[in-house]
Amino acid sequence: MAALSRGCRDTSMAALSRGCHDTSMTALSRGCHDTSMAALSRGCHDTSMAALRGIADAMPLSSAIFKSEQRNPVPQCPPRLDVQTIVAVLWSRMPNTFLTVETARVSERHGWVVQCLEPLQMMAVHIPEENRCLDILELSENEGLRKFHYHTLMLYCALCALGNTRVAHALCSHLDQSQLLYTIDNQYLSGMLREGFYNVLMSIHLETAKEARLMMNNEFIIPVTDETRSIKLFPDESKRHSLPGVGLSASLKPRLNFSPLSFITTKKQQHLYSPQIPLGTLKEKAISMLTEAVQAGGSHIRDPVGGSVEYQFVPILKLIGTLLIMGVLTSEENLLEVFSWVEIW
Question: Which GO terms describe its cellular component (predicted)?
Answer without folding.
Answer: calcium channel complex; sarcolemma; sarcoplasmic reticulum membrane; smooth endoplasmic reticulum; Z disc
